[in-house]
């Protein structure tokens, strides 16, 4: 058997295993696919500093980088298995079994899968071993004849086609059709219109409302959960007077409200990009919890995603009448995009997302912080995570050259209190008060601008904000871990 043939046997064996696992996973749970289960488990066990580096280095593309890295590793293992098995199929068989057992272990580790989930990696193991040994036999006997080579090519082509069909068929949960069928989500109580002077987008700030395609996404989901609206069920239980089971249509028949909310990721460094604003439509979370009847002693709302991710929100916060927490169904005039939580997600203004913004939410348990711990608490993050007072400079950009008069612009946020003032200074000089954009609410960001006459040369601009309670943004730089970054954002630029 030639080296090329041996490598091809190994690659096709692994492809058949992945396809079989993916196909069976479509029946027992998409995240049972061995490839995804191993990837999700790798995310769970990755040290926090490595995760932080991935977010800083790759941002919203960190999952794609992991998938590509896993694919390269698997390709290398497949080629190695084939090359080691040129004389005997035993080495490749052993490697296939090891990979299969790794998939079984990963599936058993997943909190969102039942016992039937192991069927997917078991099917992958069986298919991988069987196809590898079958192709090995075709390639090794009688490889030297034209008929033998023809038979091997036919077998290889059939295996590749079957693997492709398995991968495609395994992903045939048509969630987009379900999302389209939802149609318009008309709120009974619309959000107040955003005034035209709320942003300075023409001068460098973001638009006040972030388009769905540009809304930041930071989560642990290696693959987006694919839950149809007609299959979605939300369970509300725990320390309640009556347990609730709510379907999508149950929520949709209620009076929907629309709220304009800025969401911030706790991983955001000073001056970071992980902040966006949208008009969310949904059902007030407070109303649902009061309907269930929250018992004395419940201090945590423990939410679980369809992929098993968990978060804990303070009960006293989500029950605040003016907080505006939602079980959101829509975003910017359409049903939630898949990657932002369709069919439903939580939105709690004023809390960082890791304790408040569970996407693909399927379970709400009223409990205590002593009894349950959310996903990120065991990874070094704080239990309480109110969004911190912060400002950012958007223009001039770092390292840029500006001709003539300088117009500096940026954003600030102080949820849920609201921003009262933004000040900037250049080269450590006196502070100047910036002009603020029109105010929308304390739950949203606020834009600012200031005009500066500066001499040619290099300059450093700094910004700080103050909230309506009179608190000024602290200067000291603090890293995001454990409860969010602080510090003044600064930008160096040149005036020509």
Write up what this structure looks like:
This protein has three domains: 168 residues, no CATH class; 201 residues, Sulfite Oxidase, Chain A, domain 2; 106 residues, Immunoglobulin-like (Sandwich). The strands form four sheets. It has a five-stranded mixed sheet. Strands 3, 4, 7, 8 and 9 form a five-stranded antiparallel sheet that branches. Strands 12-19-18-14-15 form a five-stranded mixed sheet, with no helix packed on it. It has eleven helices and 19 strands. The model has no long low-confidence stretch (mean pLDDT 89). Strand 7 and strand 8 form a beta hairpin. Helix 5 runs antiparallel to helix 6 and helix 6 packs antiparallel against helix 7. By secondary structure, it is α+β, with helices and mostly antiparallel strands.
Features:
alpha+beta, five-stranded antiparallel sheet, Sulfite Oxidase, Chain A, domain 2, 3 domains, about 500 residues, Immunoglobulin-like
Unreliable spans are none
Total of DSSP H or I helical runs spanning 4+ residues:
11
Q: What class would the helix/strand composition place it in?
A: alpha+beta
Largest sheet entry: 5 strands, mixed
- Count of DSSP E strands? 19
Shape: globular
């Amino acid at each position: 058997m030639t080296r090329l043939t041996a490598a091809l046997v190994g690659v096709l064996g692994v492809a058949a295993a992945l396809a079989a696992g993916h196909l069976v996973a479509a029946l027992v749970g998409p995240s049972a696919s061995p490839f995804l289960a191993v990837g999700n488990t790798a995310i769970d066990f990755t040290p926090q500093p490595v995760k932080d580096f991935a977010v800083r280095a790759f941002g919203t593309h960190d999952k794609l980088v992991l998938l590509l890295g896993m694919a390269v590793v698997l390709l290398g293992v497949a080629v190695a298995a084939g090359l080691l098995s040129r004389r005997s199929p035993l080495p490749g068989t052993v490697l296939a079994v090891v990979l299969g057992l790794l998939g079984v272990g990963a599936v058993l580790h997943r909190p969102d899968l039942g016992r039937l989930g192991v069927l997917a990696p078991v099917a992958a193991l069986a298919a991988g071993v069987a196809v590898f040994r079958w192709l090995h036999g075709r390639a090794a006997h009688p490889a030297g004849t034209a008929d033998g080579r023809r038979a091997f090519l036919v077998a290889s082509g059939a295996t590749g086609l079957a693997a492709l069909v398995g991968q495609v068929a395994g992903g045939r949960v048509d969630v987009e059709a379900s999302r389209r069928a939802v149609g318009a989500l008309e709120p009974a109580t619309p959000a107040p219109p955003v005034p035209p002077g709320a942003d300075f987008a023409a001068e460098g700030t973001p638009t006040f409302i972030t388009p769905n395609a540009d809304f930041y996404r930071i989560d642990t989901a290696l693959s987006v959960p694919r839950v149809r609206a007609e299959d979605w069920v939300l369970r509300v239980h725990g320390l309640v007077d009556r347990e609730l089971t709510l379907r999508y249509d149950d929520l949709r028949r209620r009076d929907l409200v629309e709220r304009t909310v800025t969401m911030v990721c706790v991983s955001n460094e000073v001056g970071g990009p992980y902040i966006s604003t949208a008009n969310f439509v949904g059902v007030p979370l407070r109303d649902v919890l009061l309907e269930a009847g929250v018992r004395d002693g419940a201090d945590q709302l423990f939410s679980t995603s369809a992929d098993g991710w968990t978060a804990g929100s303070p009960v006293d916060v989500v029950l605040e009448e003016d907080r505006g927490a939602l079980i959101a169904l829509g975003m910017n005039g359409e049903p939630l995009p898949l990657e932002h939580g369709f069919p439903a997600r939580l939105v709690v203004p004023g809390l960082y997302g890791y304790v408040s913004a569970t996407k693909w939410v399927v379970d709400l348990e009223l409990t205590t912080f002593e009894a349950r711990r959310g996903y990120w608490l065991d990874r070094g993050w704080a239990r309480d995570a109110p969004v911190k007072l912060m400002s950012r400079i958007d223009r001039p950009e770092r390292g840029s050259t500006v001709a003539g008069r300088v117009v500096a612009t940026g954003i600030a946020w102080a949820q849920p209190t609201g921003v009262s003032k933004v000040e900037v200074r250049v080269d450590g000089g006196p502070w100047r008060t910036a002009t603020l954009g029109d105010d929308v609410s304390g739950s949203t960001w606020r834009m600012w601008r200031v005009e500066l006459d500066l001499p040619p040369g290099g300059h450093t601009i700094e910004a700080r904000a103050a909230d309506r309670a009179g608190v000024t943004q602290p200067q000291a730089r603090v890293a995001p871990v454990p409860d969010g970054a602080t510090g003044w954002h600064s930008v160096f630029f040149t005036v020509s």
